[in-house]
């Protein structure tokens, strides 16, 4: 790997979040394989995201939520080093919008945070939701 950008992106010391994997042999694993096959085949996007016959809508949506989270983590991991506490002191959506963080623990009121801090808290919160067996059961039934 001679490209310096790729070396930086795939540096083992960086804080990439591990992907949530589906257990081989489970229904979710099979749905994930179907989703990957259809998305990688260059098919019509409307057809690629349609619920396969005989599958549960909640399982199909869960697979795509987890896959979307994994892809966003990968993208954020590649650009996250460019946005520091100093260069991105506010989490914003352009000059008109500022995002503030609020949770049930440390930030009980909407709080202005730097973009990296906001993203770390957001990704941690999403990961907790995805790993919550009540919201995203990993076993059939």
Automatic annotation (TrEMBL):
Q: What is this protein called?
A: MOB3A kinase
Alphabetically ordered keywords of this record: Kinase, Metal-binding, Transferase, Zinc
A Pfam short name? Mob1_phocein
The UniProt entry, under InterPro entries, shows: MOB_kinase_act_fam, MOB_kinase_act_sf
Q: Tell me the Gene3D superfamilies matching this sequence.
A: MOB kinase activator (1.20.140.30)
Respond yes or no to whether keyword Zinc is given for this record: yes
Q: Which domain of life is it from?
A: Eukaryota
Q: Where does Zn(2+) bind?
A: 83, 88
Spell out the molecular function terms from Gene Ontology: kinase activity
Please give the coiled-coil regions recorded for this protein.
none
The question of whether Zinc is a record keyword is answered with: yes
């Amino acid at each position: 790997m001679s490209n310096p950008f790729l070396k930086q992106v795939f540096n083992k010391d960086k804080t990439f979040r591990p992907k949530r994997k589906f257990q081989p042999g489970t229904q979710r694993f099979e749905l994930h394989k179907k989703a990957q096959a259809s998305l990688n085949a260059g098919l019509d996007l409307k057809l690629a995201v349609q619920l396969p016959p005989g599958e549960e809508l909640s399982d199909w949506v869960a697979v795509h939520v987890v896959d979307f989270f994994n892809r966003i983590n990968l993208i954020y991991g590649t650009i996250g080093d460019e946005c520091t506490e100093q260069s991105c002191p506010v989490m914003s959506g352009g000059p008109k919008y500022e995002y503030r963080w609020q949770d049930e623990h440390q930030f009980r009121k909407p709080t202005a945070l730097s973009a990296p801090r906001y993203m770390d808290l957001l990704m941690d919160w999403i990961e907790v939701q995805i790993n919550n067996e009540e919201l995203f059961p990993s076993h059939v039934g």
